[in-house]
Design goal:
The protein has about 120 residues and is α+β, with helices and mostly antiparallel strands. The protein has 4 helices and 3 strands; from the N terminus they run αααββαβ. Helix 3 crosses helix 4. The longest helix is centred in the middle third of the chain and has 19 residues. It is elongated, with a radius of gyration of 22 Å.
Length: about 120
């Protein structure tokens, strides 16, 4: 009887496809699809590491102020014309507030909100 159960289990695995595992998209994948940047936009994009760090700091301060510190472990990554928000918060409303705060600082940059809602 045990051999029959093992055989049935193997047959079931062969017939029933496993459900795909949901993976969070890696924001770095977007960098592989870089489009040509217009000269006007290039002037607005941070050109040095110091400019990128200053921009990231200003976005982080705006997000923390708007959400009243509601985003835990907030990290802002600025690379080229893109900005990523990482961290976690307790509600989708807080996540939305963080995104709107980040959008007001660099209106010309592409924003990806990777903040997790717990």
């Amino acid at each position: 009887m045990a051999a029959r159960g093992v055989l049935f289990h193997r047959l079931l695995l062969a017939v029933v496809p496993r459900s795909p595992t949901r993976f969070r998209e890696d924001p770095m994948n977007e960098l592989r699809d870089i489009q040509p940047v217009s000269p006007e936009l290039l002037r607005l994009v941070p050109q040095t590491l110091d400019e990128a760090e200053t921009l990231a700091t200003s976005i982080e301060k705006a997000v923390q102020q708007e959400t009243a510190g509601g985003v835990a472990d907030l990290t802002v990554v600025v690379r080229g014309d893109r900005v990523w928000l990482h961290g976690s918060c307790s509600s989708f409303y807080c996540k939305q507030l963080a995104q709107h705060a980040a959008m007001t600082v660099p209106a010309h940059l592409r924003l990806t909100n990777c903040i997790d809602v717990d």
